[in-house]
Amino acid sequence: MRYSDYARLIRSHESLGEVAEYGQVLEGGQSYPLFRITVPGERWLVITSGFHGEEPAGPLTLATQLPEVVAYAKERGVGLRVYPCINPSGFEDGTRYNRSGEKPNNDFLRYEVAPGEWRGELNAGQDHLRWALYDGGPKETKAVRTDLARFRPPDAALDIHQDNYLGGTATYAYTFGDTSAYRPFMDAASRHVTVVRNQKVDDHNITDADGLIEYHDGSVTDWYMRQGVPYTAALETTTPTPLETCHVVNLLWVRGFIDLAARGKR
User: Fold this and answer.
1) Residue 40: in which H helix or E strand, if any?
2) Does the pTM of the predicted model rise above 0.90?
């Protein structure tokens, strides 16, 4: 999909909430607007998506199913800040990274693992001295990080991704906090896709029996966890999963996170 068509679809939702541009990025001589959709409420859920351009399901779920999401949130008094497509040139090109080859995603914080030694990720069991908000990285990450930092941390945060490496029709998630809160979402998703349980998904991570992984990777959800947000997760569906099925799974988690934000723990 051309991003200009996607932008028109996002702007068509102005009756649902405030559709604002929090910035623009220039790629290949073309300027791309970056959108934030805000719906006020008593508690807050932040939803991000589209860090990786070859993972289109999240941006498309948020663009096409937003009326349902907003209605569900309003019924529960939950406000939304939705960043539906963070990497527009990658989305338009169908590429993981932006058109300049930069890698938006894991550039929200850095860990000092020894005096003066900073890393973007912590391996399992690795300790750290402190963490700090990172001021570098790709232009897309800088833009969304700057905008997110303007607001008080939310009551919950959900980042929607896809896995372009595992085959089949499947799902798993990176989560922080009480994993029992996420188990019902996976149980519901298992009626539509295979939950990746007790399986290696990359060089560093193996899912648990519920299809969940805890990994401090410098991402937006890691950053929110470090700020004390009680419910943070990055949802994955595999790219071979049919788009309509991805919508179903994404909406299960979005509704679930709205419920978690409404519950609150702060």
Assistant:
1) none
2) yes
